[in-house]
Design goal:
Structural class: mainly beta
Organism: Hyphomonas adhaerens MHS-3
CATH superfamily of the largest domain: Trypsin-like serine proteases
Oligomer: single chain
Main location: secreted
Radius of gyration: 24 Å
CATH class of the largest domain: Mainly Beta
Distance between the termini: 12 Å
Pfam families: DUF4384, Trypsin
Number of helices: 5
Strand order of the largest sheet: 1-17-14-19-20-21-18
GO molecular function, one term: serine-type endopeptidase activity
Keywords: Disulfide bond, Glycoprotein, Hydrolase, Lipoprotein, Protease, Secreted, Serine protease, Signal
Shape: elongated
Bound molecules: arginine
Helix content: under 10%
CATH architecture of the largest domain: Beta Barrel
Number of domains: 2
CATH topology of the largest domain: Thrombin, subunit H
């Protein structure tokens, strides 16, 4: 079915682990920045029947996906109340957002760490369903260290350098999460996929935490079941234009979320992890849920603390924390819809990249050895895909994050694929018909954004919207990068070349 044998099948896409889906219920300290009434409160805007059941489209998490997840709780109005997330980063320490533990102090009489308004701070580890939390899963906080440069910035006093660690009163023997050591493993540099989890709100209409019962007694939380979802990381620009620029800082923050706002973290998720996966599917934490304008709002991605920017702080308190220079998972999975969307968008730039197979021609025989020659007439970032008559898209170049750096081309620079220049054998598609080779030159800062999709088999509900939002985001990002063009020609820094060809037996 694959015509060009070294290509990775798009089927790899369906191995992506999490999907997008459902939510839960409520609860958050009142004074958090999202609650600032001076921010426009565009509420979650799916049709009611969808909003009521789907919330922010997180999905119940599998416990085994988040074994290091920590839930923070205190006591409000006499009721145990869950209000933030965190992650175990060593047997003694949990990572969270500074704003989750702001103002915490040690009560000299009891020796316990307390937060203003919610009393003694506790950490629950190993819980996916808060109704089943047992006393042996509950830890008391015996120390709280907030990043020394934590502050509130901008007109909305959003948290800046929003990171802290909390010490457990006894060792946690379960899994800990690895932390991203550098911006090289932070997948937002190529707009890669990320995943978050939390017990936060799934619907803005949820003003207060819900009440539940557990063996321990009654408690309050926005939801009782841990939710998770996949969201794309975004260019810093997507957040710095949407949020008060004076406080958005891409060295300490990661921007993530759909442009359509379909899936988002929300109040109560703060402090929890934003994770990425490496090439082998192993997770590592890149972000901490920090703030956003309302939740799930179109055009308003959310802000996550960039963990790699705080390696020194974390290591100064928790030297045993594991930092990793990870090689991120393969991220360019283009769909037919995405490719067609991109072709439509760049139509006026068609012809600025010449594409040929061998010495030219458009009809090839099965088994024939071929090489693809790409000659761009503009400078920029090269992307090459193949679309076959069955609708399958194959990535030709660059197909993984490691190739990003070699994808920059100059005008008249001839590129030969496969990259080694060795010819490869071509075979007919499963469905008869023509195939299309599509080569694009995109503005340099586009890096690698693919039409990444969650695992469809695990995603229900508004997947169509999500699906479209991926290619929407990609085209949105392309247009955004096109606006850097030095002249009034919006296509000055883009080019496209298409080649229709067929392969016969
Ligand atoms: N500040 C919130 C909290 O304390 C997290 C908000 C995340 N907002 C968003 N739109 N993703 O729980």
């Amino acid at each position: 079915m694959r015509k060009i044998q070294y290509l990775q099948p798009l089927a790899g896409l369906f191995l992506l682990a999490f999907a997008a889906c459902t939510g839960m219920a409520s609860a958050q300290p009142d004074a958090f920045p999202d609650e600032d009434p001076s921010w426009p409160r565009t509420e979650f805007s799916l049709p009611d029947e969808t909003a009521g059941t789907k919330g922010f489209n997180t999905q119940p998490a599998r416990k085994e996906d988040w074994p290091f997840f920590a839930a923070l709780r205190g006591t409000r109005n006499g009721l145990v109340t869950y209000d933030c997330g965190g992650t175990a980063i060593s047997s003694e320490w949990v990572l969270t957002a500074a704003h989750c533990v702001e103002g915490a102090t040690k009560n000299a009489a009891t020796g316990q760490w307390e937060r203003p308004g919610s009393g003694a701070l506790q950490i629950v580890l190993g819980a996916r369903d808060l109704k089943t939390v047992a006393p042996n899963q509950v830890y008391n906080a015996t120390d709280v260290r907030i990043a020394p440069n934590f502050t509130r910035g901008g007109a909305n006093k959003v948290p800046v350098n929003d990171i802290a660690v909390v010490k457990l009163d006894r060792p946690w023997n379960g899994p800990v999460v690895r932390l991203s050591a550098s911006s090289a493993s932070d997948v937002d540099r190529f707009f890669g996929p990320a995943y978050f989890a939390g017990f936060g709100k799934t619907d803005m209409r949820q003003k207060e935490p819900e009440r539940y019962n557990s063996a321990e007694g009654p408690f309050a939380a926005y939801t009782d079941i841990l939710g998770n979802a996949m969201i794309p990381t975004r260019s810093p620009k997507a957040c710095s234009t949407d949020y008060q620029v004076d406080s958005y800082d891409s060295t300490s923050m990661i921007c993530a979320g759909y442009d359509t706002g379909i899936i988002d973290s929300c109040q109560g998720d703060s402090g929890g992890p934003l994770i990425a996966r490496d090439f082998a599917g192993r997770v590592y934490q890149i972000g901490i849920v920090s703030f956003g304008e309302s939740c799930g709002v179109r055009g308003k991605p959310a802000v996550y603390t960039r963990v790699s920017g705080f390696k020194d702080f974390v290591q100064s308190v928790v030297p045993e924390a594991v930092f990793v220079d990870a090689k991120p998972e393969k991220t360019v999975y283009m769909t037919k819809a995405g490719l067609e969307n991109l072709i439509r968008t760049l139509k006026p730039a068609d012809g600025k990249v010449s594409v040929r197979i061998n010495e030219g021609g458009s009809e090839f025989r099965s088994g024939e050895r071929v090489r693809i020659f790409i000659d761009p007439s503009v400078k920029g970032r090269l992307w090459v895909f193949d679309l076959d008559p069955s609708g399958a898209v194959s990535c030709l170049f660059p197909c993984n994050a490691g190739e990003v750096d070699t994808a920059l081309v100059e005008p008249q620079q001839s590129v030969v694929l496969p990259p080694g220049g060795v010819s490869i054998s071509i075979s007919p598609p499963t469905v008869p018909g023509d195939s299309t080779l599509a080569a694009f030159v995109l503005p340099e800062r586009m890096a690698l954004i693919g039409d990444t999709l969650p695992d469809l088999s695990r995603t229900k509900g508004p997947i169509r919207t999500v699906w479209q939002s991926y290619s929407d985001i990609m085209v949105f990002e392309v247009r955004d990068a096109m606006s850097d063009a030095p002249t009034s020609d919006p296509y000055a820094n883009t080019g496209m070349g298409l080649l229709t060809y067929s392969v016969s037996e």
